[in-house]
Amino acid sequence: MKTTENISLGGYAFTIEADAYAELGTYLNEVRKGFSTDPSADEILEDIEERIAELLKEQTVAGMVVNMSMIQDIKKRIGNPEELAQDDADRQEESTQGEENQNKKTDKKSWKNKRIYRDIDNRVFGGVCSGIGSYFGIDNVLVRIFFLIFFMIGFIGIDDGPYVLFSVVAYICLWIAMPAARTDGQKRELHGRPTDLKGYKGNDFDFEREVKEAAQSPAGRTIKRAGEIFLGGILLITGLGGLLGGLFIPKMPEIIGVHLADHIMRWGPLDAEGQLISDLFGGTTFWGLVLVMLGIGCVGMVYGGVMLLFDLKSPSWKPGLIIFIAWIISIFVIIAYIIKIIADALPGLIV
């Protein structure tokens, strides 16, 4: 049995074996000594502690005790404190005000310390603009304005036609080419924070996941809501138009009866096929069933349109589903009625 300690590291609580705790303490002391001359030593140490906590969190589950092998693995993955201190000193030296060449070297160094990702934590749609802004140290708003201007120029068109698809295709290509910063290590690389991790997970482009994330983004939600309003308006107008048009259905038997009477006067009695058509479309039963089917369908459209337009939640008893089932049943009733009419007229058709 080993003695354990309860510690708080980087905002996370861990249970750690005593020997691993001593090893971790020694390592952090070495880190503190390595950055002792740096004015930002406290911030750097806090950042490294946070990184250690992130790595421990990846390796442990609830109730799991941190052991010596985990600490040794983390030391290898983070690296030698003296090397980290030297790298940070170089960055501090390059970031100080000095000669123009030194400033250029600073910019080049800062880009080398970063890796471009899509910044999905600050995205509006796919995180492309925020990722580019974070990588180059440009305000994300300015990058988005650039893309918007590029889009509008393409929409207006130059010379012989619109080129709006250029900006859309460019954005989609960047979206696919730039992996999303999902893990803690990827987010650190995006912002140029110290890390020596060699492998990263989740870099492959997953279309289904990207679509779901895009739908949850601010722009995605706005587009979705606009689509719901547009579709809701169409459904509402179509449903109300269908209900108004249904007022003329009771007149159909009379209209067809007048047409058949005129046909008989000109061409004589109806043959078997003509009589079948007369029995089917000339009676009130068929048009009554059509009126019920049309009415249920239009009521469903009006209901769906109102729900989409006003972003309402469906009640627990699911009226939309009930309306849809009733509409399907009405269709089967019409089909059954048509089959019955044909079956009754079949002897005459065979003769």
- Overall domain count: 3
Could you tell me the strand content as a percent range? under 5%
Give the CA-CA distance, first to last residue: 99 Å
Global mean pLDDT: 78
Helix content range: 55-70%
Number of beta-strand segments: 2
Q: Which class do the helix and strand fractions yield?
A: mainly alpha
Describe the largest sheet: 2 strands, antiparallel
Put simply, the count of helices is 15
Query: So what's the overall shape?
Result: elongated
Report the C-alpha radius of gyration, rounded: 36 Å
Order of helices and strands: EEHHHHHHHHHHHHHHH
**In order across it, which strands form the biggest sheet?**
1-2
Protein model, in words:
- Helix content is 70%, strand content 3%.
- The chain folds into three domains: 4-109, no CATH class; 114-216, no CATH class; 224-350, no CATH class.
- The relative contact order is 0.06.
- The protein contains 15 helices and two strands.
- The chain is elongated.
- Strands 1-2 form a two-stranded antiparallel ribbon.
- The protein is mainly α.
Summary?
The protein has 351 residues and is mainly alpha-helical. It has helices at residues 18-34, 41-59, 68-78, 81-95, 100-112, 128-136, 140-156, 164-177, 184-190, 207-216, 218-245, 252-267, 272-281, 284-309, 319-350, and strands at 4-9, 12-17. Strands 1-2 form a two-stranded antiparallel ribbon.
Observed structural traits:
3 domains, 3% strand
